[in-house]
Design goal:
Strand order of the largest sheet: 2-1-3-4-7-8-11-10-9
Helix content: 25-40%
Low-confidence stretches: 1-62, 444-455, 648-656
Shape: globular
Strand content: 5-15%
Structural class: alpha/beta
Largest sheet: 9 strands, mixed
Length: 656
């Protein structure tokens, strides 16, 4: 197009040691308090390991760098690796635990795997730029993420009370990251490195990529790019996008248009983005309700969220949302990783340990140590869940060979520590029994690796693969999952295998033999299931199956437990104050629990987090069809519902 601009400057010098150009591939990732104390800042005493790359493709064309024992966090570590400097700096709100469940640190190794020298600044102080300057100015860009959790969710309970703990911080103490961490860190980067491209990513940025309701200020906020004044935003799972961004910047090319990214543009006289990248011209597109239109009609936030769900799932269209005289432009969704890519990513040499510079233990390190991620994505499409707009409904699964190799490696490491065969705490993902799940319809609408549609995107028009009933085209090979778990438990290095991430009850009921295996072999006394409620109306608003499905699951679970001579329990996840839920609905749930002599432990008051259908319903007071809903909006109303569920009288202590 005419007047096409390049928002990012061309790199000042070529990357050392790279002699061939990089083709495009598929990012995912008022100030309060102070940053962490000096005793918890990384100190220059790391240990390094050269090598660690196993796949023949790792050294193909000389693009790979040797993987360090830990991604560098100081100038001393950079020099010890023999690097002249950094290509990419990743700033993150979590302390550095080198585990594949921690997105930013996974992306750091992914970039190193593809030849980009990457460093990490974890939980920097936000009163100074000193922590960002320790490794010098990166050559290409700085990536910014709030961490594994939205910073406001990490800081506050459903009743806006400050949390005192943080599992991703040394010592487990809250307060090491600022509120609205993406905004604060982006501002720090601009101060430390004027003119350096800033790329937002992670869950906080991803779910705020368009106008969103902010529960903590009870207001509609603009797309986060406008407040952070960043150059690019990576939404969803970001391996392909962050790599494409690094490669384009390495070539001095325009980064706009990379699948799975968003950027700001001005509007032309026709109300369209004025400088659309050439590869989006003529492609299908979606115009989302403008920010101003949502301010005038709250129901339009729900319409926007529904449209975004469809855009993410169908994968063939870009979108834009007008905000004043500008617009946030969303490229097509990034294509989910295939099995080979998943195996390559999770096969990187993660230590599963905290960086050795920390002097206090990080609770997440122990929580994650013996867990294995088998897949991403969830077909459930629950209205309160952020997965629909972040990981998506398509499931990306690792191969059984990759998972068995990781289990064997974990067991060998445990034996070397003198602890014997390992007990694997969890093998799963968002829903454990969706490993290798796929949609039969997608086979006829596959997308090419370059991100352009080959068959027009997905032909599916459902908002969930599991609601109102299980879709016949949603194929879930649960017996293969059971075979995998059995093969893993049969390894000499493995003592036992558990499924702790929970199973989808309606899927497990499809196959009695599968449910018997989950119950009799891979439940460690307790199995997590999420019925969420018992009221038919509330369950429909949640896009959850009716109570009869959960009760059928319970009956079969207890029957199978008795058959193998085990005393086992289901741990139900339950929610109060959901949009459309009345006090009468909560009394009905409390009565149902008393009938079963259950004292609920896994309970949560609904938190309207940005980007979900349920949050939009909370904001506008309507259901997805536009019908009025009762919403427990005040803290007093929400607290009353939660106390009905937990059995605490209104004169008792505050719920937490």
């Amino acid at each position: 197009m005419a007047n096409r601009r390049r928002p990012f400057p061309k790199p000042a010098r070529p990357a050392g040691g790279r002699s061939v150009p990089f083709p495009d591939l598929l990012l995912e990732a008022s100030q309060e308090g102070v940053g962490r104390g000096a005793r918890d800042r990384p100190s220059p005493n790391p240990v390094f390991r050269e090598g660690g790359l196993k796949s023949p493709s790792d050294t193909e064309k000389g693009t790979a760098l040797a993987q360090p024992l830990f991604v560098p966090m100081s100038a001393e570590e950079v020099r010890a690796l023999g690097w002249e400097g950094l290509d990419v700096l990743l700033v993150n709100g979590d302390a550095y635990v080198d585990h594949p469940s921690c997105g930013v640190f996974l992306l750091a190794r992914w970039l190193i795997r593809h030849g980009f020298r990457t460093g990490i600044v974890a939980q920097p102080r936000w009163s100074t730029t000193e922590d960002l300057l320790v490794m010098g100015r990166p050559r290409l860009f700085a990536g910014v993420s709030a961490g594994a959790l939205d910073s406001l969710v990490a800081h506050y309970t459903a009743f806006r009370k400050k949390r005192h703990d943080d599992a991703y911080t040394p010592g487990g103490k809250a307060g090491a990251r600022p509120n609205r961490a993406c905004l604060v860190y982006a501002n720090l980067v601009r101060q430390a490195f004027p003119g350096l491209p800033v790329v937002l990513g992670g869950i906080e940025a991803s779910l705020r990529r368009v106008s969103h309701y902010d529960f903590w200020t009870d207001a509609l906020r603009r797309p986060i790019l406008m407040d952070a004044k960043a150059d690019l935003l990576v939404w969803g799972m970001g391996e392909h996008a962050i790599l494409a961004c690094a490669r384009r910047l390495d070539q001095g090319a325009d980064v706009r248009g990379i699948p799975g990214t968003a950027w700001m543009d001005r509007l032309d006289a026709n109300g369209q983005p004025a400088s659309l990248p050439e590869d989006l011209v003529g492609a299908p597109w979606v115009e989302l309700p403008s920010h101003e239109a949502i301010l005038g009609d709250a129901f339009k936030l729900l319409q926007l969220t529904q449209a975004l769900e469809r855009q993410v799932h169908r994968q063939n269209a870009w979108a834009f949302q007008p905000v004043g005289q500008r617009a946030v432009v969303l490229a097509r969704p990034a294509i989910p990783l295939n099995t080979e890519e998943m195996d390559s990513l999770y096969g990187l040499p993660f230590t599963r340990k905290a960086h050795p510079s920390y002097h206090l233990p990080i609770p997440a390190e122990e929580m994650l140590r013996a867990s294995i991620t088998s897949h991403r994505g969830c077909g459930g499409g629950c209205s309160f869940c952020s997965l629909s707009l972040h990981q998506g409904r398509r499931v990306s699964s690792r191969s059984s060979e990759s998972l068995l190799a990781e289990a064997r490696q974990l067991g060998q490491a445990n034996v070397q520590r003198g602890k014997g065969p390992i007990a694997i705490s969890d093998v799963g993902g968002p829903t454990a029994n969706m490993w290798q799940a796929h949609c039969a319809l997608d086979r006829d609408a596959s997308l090419r690796p370059d991100g352009k549609e080959a068959g027009g995107g997905s032909v599916c028009r459902r908002s969930s693969c599991c609601y109102p009933t299980l879709c016949k085209s949603f194929l879930v090979p649960q017996r293969r999952h059971v075979d995998l778990l059995r093969a893993m438990e049969a390894l000499p290095e493995v003592k036992q295998v558990r499924v702790a991430s929970g199973v989808r009850a309606d899927l497990a009921l499809r196959d009695a033999a599968v449910l018997a295996a989950y119950t009799g072999e891979f439940t460690g006394g307790q199995l997590k299931v999420a019925p969420e409620h018992c009221s038919a109306g509330v369950l429909a608003l949640m896009r959850k199956p009716p109570l009869e499905v959960f009760e059928a699951f319970l009956a079969e679970f207890y029957r199978q437990s008795r058959a193998v001579g085990r005393e086992q329990y289901v741990v139900p996840y339950l929610m109060s104050a959901f949009p459309g839920c009345t006090d009468e609905d909560m009394y009905a749930l409390a009565h149902w629990l008393r009938q079963r002599h259950w004292n609920p432990r896994q309970t949560q008051c609904f938190i309207p987090t940005p980007g979900t259908i349920a949050t939009a319903m909370y904001y506008c007071g309507r259901d997805e069809a536009g019908n009025p809903l009762y919403v427990a909006r005040s803290d007093a109303q929400r607290l009353r519902q939660h106390r009905i569920l937990t059995g605490v009288s209104t004169g008792g202590r505050d719920a937490r």
